[in-house]
From TrEMBL:
Pfam families the UniProt entry points to: PqqD
Top-level division of the source organism's lineage: Bacteria
Name under which the protein is recorded: PqqD family protein
Gene3D superfamilies, per database record: Coenzyme PQQ synthesis protein D (PqqD)
Length: 144
């Protein structure tokens, strides 16, 4: 597929949830989990909704105290990280991508979109909770 300027979350391999402006995504194949800051969460949710990448900077600028032009390179770097970690893949924009969401009244302080990767819980996230446990039950894994 040619680069359409849009992405989609690499589901069902990747699941996510956004709470209080922070997004957590889990790669169910690798057991890694990812934490995204508020600006990254805005971009992530635009990807979930099927918006083209051309809309990302404008929407981030509407939510945060930053000019769209200044946010654009930060967003491009962030999206490259998501692609490299195979959390998102290239896709066609959906019909929902025609009208980006409106801005908010009070713009928040801006920090570049960022994502942190954590591998410290891979063993638990990849464990089979039915078969890979001791008699004590979940989450007690047998010794490796």
């Amino acid at each position: 597929m040619a680069d359409s300027g849009a992405y989609r979350v690499n589901e069902p391999k990747v699941v996510s949830e956004t709470l209080d402006g922070e997004t957590i995504a889990i790669d169910l194949e690798s057991g890694s989990y990812f934490s995204m800051n508020p600006a990254a969460s805005v971009v992530w949710n635009l990807i979930l909704a099927g918006y083209p990448s051309a809309a990302f900077a404008g929407v981030v600028a509407a939510h945060f105290d930053v000019a769209a032009e200044d946010a654009a390179s930060d967003i491009a770097t962030f999206v490259e990280t998501l692609v490299r970690d195979r959390l998102v893949i290239a896709a066609e924009p959906t019909a929902a991508a025609e009208t980006p969401p409106a801005g908010v009244e009070a713009r928040l302080p801006y920090a570049s979109p960022s994502v942190e990767r954590f591998d410290d819980m891979q063993e638990l996230l990849l464990a089979d909770p039915i078969h890979d446990v001791t008699l004590a039950g979940w989450p007690h894994l047998p010794p490796s």
